[in-house]
Amino acid sequence: MGGTAASMLMLFTVIPCCFASDVLKKTRLGWIKGNQLQVLGRTVDEFRGIPYAHPPLNALRFRPPRPYGPWNGTLDARSKRTACPQVVPNPKAYTGITLTEDCLQLNIWSPQTRTKDVVPVLVWIHGGGFTSGSSALDWYNGVVLAARTGLVVASFNYRLNLLGFLDAQTPQAPGNVGFLDQNLALQWIRANIDQYGGDASRVTIFGDSAGGMSVHGHLISPLSSGLFTRGNQSVYTYVFGHQSKKNPLPSWMGIPHSYDVNYMFGRPLVDQHNFTAEDARVSELEIKALSTFAFTGEPMLPGDHPWPKYTSDNTVSVYISGDNVTEIRDFHMEKCEVWRKFWNM
């Protein structure tokens, strides 16, 4: 119910921006053509559908991904939007998105700066229970986040369902290739993001739902060591308790799953039809926490107050509800206690 509600609420969140022109860039993999957008008074170069792996078809199906590139000619990255094969939970949300096995592509939003200095990179991993979702969905569009923070934003697709996670215990289908897709995308970003103004030594990965689980997987996987920089930092947590006054759902239903994604990607800053001024302030709060973490490893609260660290001795979380930002302790601790009976946590 919560996930479905979130999908319906985010479906009509449109990003108003002005298309300026095409942008042509020479990279070490070849020439690439993208869009140049004007958002919040800033110019952002957008590149969609950049292949990071060969299409996982025929003999490559179920197998680990093979790196793609360089390409011949000019790669058109202006409008390609794909999703890996899945049972689509909300067809309207996938309007303009092609379901295809040739889906191993990534997107980059690169804000133009006055200097040639590279900036930190935010890499988004989409959710969907490892069975659905796509980086091409409208509510994952990174243009506002890039414009507001001045950071490079990237996202990518990975194989889902049986095509991504079938384990036949054979070389032809070794299992978890969806995670290997993610790993290869992160390798591509490390090797090439400097061509788009990003600093490969300052990469932060983040995600929702299955994307958040994926972040945890990369934290413990030796294959992902060195592909991002903020994984070994202190833990900071928050509970999102804000519900927009324009949310059509009754308050007794609570906050839909992944509802904060809209705020993290800055939708309330550009969509006054579906969001309020209070929503915009909450969005600014989330974006500031994310950007300061990307720069320093420590998120900041309004007024430049430090975000409290979560430790085993100090189980404190930030509770966000409108303009009220408070600290709460022992959130869902009773559920943790269940597992302490089996593991020494």
Q: How do the helices and strands line up, and which of them pair or pack?
A:
Layout: H1 2-11, E1 18-27, E2 30-39, E3 42-51, E4 74-76, E5 82-83, E6 98-99, E7 105-111, E8 119-125, H2 143-149, E9 152-156, H3 161-165, H4 177-192, E10 198-207, H5 210-220, E11 238-240, H6 261-264, H7 277-296, E12 300-301, E13 305-306, E14 316-321, E15 324-329, H8 333-340
Parallel strand pairs: 2-4, 5-6, 8-9, 8-10, 11-14
Antiparallel strand pairs: 1-2, 2-3, 3-7, 7-9, 12-13, 14-15
Domain Carboxylesterase type B: 26-230, 231-339
Protein name: Carboxylesterase type B domain-containing protein
Signal peptide: 1-20
Describe this structure in words.
GO terms for molecular function: acetylcholinesterase activity. This protein is α/β, with parallel strands linked by helices and 345 residues long. The protein has one domain (2-340): 3-Layer(aba) Sandwich (Rossmann fold), CATH 3.40.50. The protein contains eight helices and 15 strands. It has helices spanning 2-11, 143-149, 161-165, 177-192, 210-220, 261-264, 277-296, 333-340, and strands at residues 18-27, 30-39, 42-51, 74-76, 82-83, 98-99, 105-111, 119-125, 152-156, 198-207, 238-240, 300-301, 305-306, 316-321, 324-329. The strands form four sheets. Strands 1, 2, 3, 4, 7, 8, 9 and 10 form an eight-stranded mixed sheet that branches. It has a three-stranded mixed sheet with strand order 11-14-15, with no helix packed on it. It has a two-stranded parallel sheet with strand order 5-6. A hairpin with a 2-residue loop joins strand 1 and strand 2 (30-39). The longest helix has 20 residues, at 277-296. The chain is globular, with a radius of gyration of 20 Å. The two termini are 31 Å apart. The model is unreliable at 1-13 (pLDDT under 50).
